[in-house]
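Summary for the funding panel

The consortium committed to producing paired sequence-structure records for every protein in the target list. Below we show the first two records in order, beginning with the earlier of the two.
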Amino acid sequence: MTDLTERLTPWIADYRQQLPRWTREELYKWRAVQVFQENWDLGAADFPAMLRGSLAETGNLLTSVQYFARLMIERFADQFPGEVRAAFEQLFDESHPLTERMPRFKAAAEDWRERFEGAPAASHYQDERAMLVYLTLRYPDRYYLFKPMMYQDFAALVDVAVDRRQRAKVERVIGYIALANQVRDILAQDSTLIAAHRARLPANVYPDQALHLLTQDFIYCTVRTVKEHDGKIKEGLAWLSDSAEGGDEPDTEQAREQPLAWAIGAGVNGYLWEDWKANGEMSIGWDDLGDLRDYESKEAIRQELLAETTNGSSRTNDALACWQFCQDMRPGDYVVAKQGRSAVLGLGRVIGEYEFQDSRSEFQHVRRVKWLLEGYWERTADASLPTKTLTEVTYYKRFIQPILNELENQAQLRLIEPAQTKPTGGGGQDQSDPQPKPARPAYTLDDATADLFMPTAELNGLLTSLRRKKNLILQGPPGVGKSFVARRLAYLLLGEQDADRVEMVQFHPSYSYEDFIMGYRATEHGGFLREAGVFLKFVRDVALANPDKPHVFIIDELNRANLGKVLGECMLLLESDKRGSNHKVMLPYGGEYMYLPENLYLIGTMNTADRSLALVDFALRRRFAFKRLQPELGERFADYLTQRGVATDFVGQLVAAVRRVNDKIEQDRTLGPDFLIGHSYYSEGPQAGETNQAWYERVLEDEIGPQLEEYWIETPAQAKAARQLLRLHATMVTGSGDE
């Protein structure tokens, strides 16, 4: 049972993760049982009608492309109702073994087929599959739905022998029931799965207290998942063999047509990994066995290990690891270096045959490896990391598929750069060393304020809030430069204008968790590939890779998206005191962990004038400092326009007009300060050859005027009055500040 539990663990995790999909596609089975239970009456006066009602929801359990078990049993019931009733009575008689009941039912069906009137029947279709469906519908707490190929495929996955003799069809059914009972006992230990299973069952389906339908569903869905991904896995491994460019090639002609994948433990707490990486190798223990090539079988290794065993262990897994390391592994295979059950340390390609190096002090069984990726990829304990020292994982979809994704598009690990060969002899600079990047000039408070119109003290206050809270939201009406300020505030925090340490995205109503954190993307070859979202990529690839420097992630128009949906688990991690690996949370995809590092800062912007935007709930507000930006129409703004060629007196008239209309907006009870006209509308200045008046009128007609009409869409007179407040022609004639 222990070996079966270990084999099932990754598939149980995968099934649990895909439960919404399987519920949509497979819930009819629970409904089919409920309908049968509600309608079945062996003594019904109209037996054919009762039978049809009982089987009404069976769907493809009894009907498929070339399988018509339901059609034929209903036709037989129409012509031979008494005989069919009697056949079901004996099939459901639990006082007799299946080895008697099933052959008798099938023989009766063959007799009906031969006597069938009307269209000729090539088959009665009342085989073991159909009979086990009938038995499960009648006794769902005793039997399991059955498909012969499903059983054979699943048995192969878990390494259970199947009686394949032609005459052993009923024996295969009995073997399937025995295996399903073991699987059921294992599933019953997963309280999370059972709770999710109970929650998905509506009131109109069979409650499945004994978990027999769940067990069959798990078996079927596991086989289906493996088949769906088997081609992709082989294709991915084949692609991988083409992707290892340069470096050593396998030094043997024994490389497989399709490489296998292996997971190997790198010692306690992964202490062997650095040596493996540096020396281009991997190794296992059991040194007392000597050269593993001297053993003719796995059993011979096990017997040798048993001679030194005093604790009663069978040493089966140890012997298997040694045998596979020496005999089954091949150059060209791929290997995952793991630490315990929680982390992947590296991915590589086997390039050497087995070697026994007795000159080593320990771990004398060695193979050469070209390591391709390195890092620390933390995963949950149930996310397919085997416990054994060495395990073939080629067909462990839950484990290998994320590995293939990682090799194609690094999200958690990084490429291992080829070692640089330094020139020998002669003096001078080492030509293999990369040229250092030129130092960026410092970005100071003076640099930031030179680009902005706000007072220096206000900008300094924003910086202080960002450093204290780590999360800052700049909110305000349109046109106050929220995005412009955000980027310069980020550079000010970094101390330099380093765009590589600043990332910016803009939210919109369709933005999702999959875009931001992690999700599946369609590939050009069909199917889907799990990828990290833009935020998770920035955290892992940039911020965590350079922990000694601050990094800033800017979210423009933050409240345009459904924040709870987009942020997910990240909502908790945003708190300044929830940073670091001690506060990691598990993601719903692939069993990955996520945490935010101490060197990560977030800046969001919010437009307060758009009534269509989502409200920000208190949970998010508690995690951010909020700062309101207002139109900056002071001395710096006036100097800026003057430097761009706008006449000084004209600037004064412009500022006065904008302030007049802003006073009107602020005093309107339906609007208020969230709707003021910002300075950014005029920050562009006149185009070449454009007069001040023409530029001003263009901005009014194209940008501000339509916005005012939107503000007072139900009171056009108010909008017209506001536009009049912005007209400059009267003031230009009189020279007065008032119209």
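The next record, for a separate protein in the list, is shown here:
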Amino acid sequence: MITSVIRVDDLIGGDGAGHYPVSLYTDQSGGDPVAQCELPDPGDLETLRGVLLASVPNPAARLAAGRSLYQLIAGTAVGQAWGALLAGPDRIRTVFDMRAGALRTLPWELMLAPTQKHPFLDDAYGCVRGSFRPGVGPGFLVPIRVLIVVGDAHDPNLRASDEVDAVRWALREGLGAWHVEVLTEPSPDELVARFKALKPHVFHFIGHGTWEDGSPALQLGPAAANEPLTSYYMANSEVPAPRLVFLNACRTTSAAGPADAQAVGWGVAAAFEDLGADAVLTMQGDIASPSAVRFAGALYAALAEGKPVDLAVRSARRDLFRKQDDAWALPSLIVRRHPEQVLPWQLGPGVDRDAVVKIAKQEKWYTSVGQTVDRVAEHWALWDGPDVDAPGYQACLVGGEPEVGKSSLVRSCVFTWCLRGSQAVYVDVKTIKDGRTVSWVDVVRALVDALAGRLPGRAELPARRFRHQLVHLRQGRRPPTVGDDELTPDDNGPWEAETEEEGALRKELMAALRALLAEVAGGRPLTIALDHLARVLEHELTGYLVPGLLMPIAEGEVADVRLIVAERTKDARRLLGDFPMLARSCEVQPFRRAQAEELFREYSAMICRPYEGEWRMLVEQVSRLAAARLDPSDLSLLNRLARQA
């Protein structure tokens, strides 16, 4: 694909006799213009500028404006050279670099060619806006971090919850690849603090724009209730620039009217451009909330498919256009680099998503990953920050009462690590013997099997060597030294070393297990998650696994290995010795009943069920109950009840 840039510089001269310098470049022209010309001052531009601001859309006026805008460029020498490029054999992407302030705010998205084609809807043209700076942006591994800020949760006309639902619904198939956080009416300080901690790839604002001390701003909360977030404050707060900014914030709280709202939208967009965002998506006029919800859902669905941002925006525009929604031209995408480089997210090297999903399904925990709701802070505690392939801690204890979602949280974190190509394995002791009590040897075998299945290239041969040791040691004899082609396979028998050396043999096996873990790690971080350890015979857990495996890892004795243990708090304190004191604590609390609507909305997206009808009425009834507690299991229970209603 060839990228062409139509650049229009500021007006030279005035009083109706001025002109705008226009140049056409391509990424194959070596920095020299392909064509240049002068665009006469069109004079009064307010009619064109206001065509998207009318409270009642005028289709005829929009079509006329689209033809005028197309002819404004096409009728010049630059337009003719551009037309020749479009008629050539190569696909062309055109960037409209409108540096002239008077022309920048015109609705170029309405452009309409004589063929009745809108270039900004047509993939063959591929039109975007921007001050184009070619170059390859650094790629990044999943998860794609999205920060959604709801500026005014009290305005029913915004339908902010519906827009958040639409985003989550669109991303539901990308389990583990997207991390979405929602802040509702934060203060500027709270927002900036989260920005710096999260370093979002995507910043999505739902709310109103306003003016504050002459600076365009985003309103955080109802009018006059909270301080707004001004572009001045953002510029001086050293916040990291997102890759993509999505501003549904053109509605203004001032009384100056639609033109003022548009000025706020363009002003805030320019502030994020100056901050260094690679792309900014803003609204050129007041977009109705139903249209905003549809557009957001279609946009994120396309991004989740891996489409570059310009194709994703055009896909969302076409979705509105097909529904005969006049709002299709309101979103305006401004890019600074090749659109493919705005969100160049990747899975880890050599990672096959289908293979990761297959393993997760075989181990019977994929479904719970897809139904993990809310636990943003807990995810962050286990991941230990953004872009971390292994946590900085040696050990972490995920505690809490029964049924609060400890397992699904740990599974979700491990799943994302797997997608990143990190070395991470999860073992659920409860599934080893269908919920029955298991021995310490059962846990050892399950861990070794998980390593060999998840990391075959690094663990398969070491696992075979370990099993050779196990099969002999469990019978009370030292393993013979043999070649790798003569290793004895594990017979899955119980521990039978009933000799006076039994204790020494058991310690030898645990030492071999620790050596196996260090070998598999091989200088790279290896994270092991063990769940439901209380299912192990108590004396074997406290006497063998805790001193032989948990404590050495927690004390840093096993090179490059980290350990996460998920267990109910009271059992962990009773059974795990000093491990809880050495491990980082992540206590998972029950949901508050007051969160019911928010939680069920997110859960609805996860299970592909619209938040409406009997389902919505049932949730509203639950949110009014006196009991303060709500568990994740209540979500699926009420879902079943709603289906039966």
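Regarding this second record: The two ends are 54 Å apart (CA to CA). Residues 591-644 form one domain.
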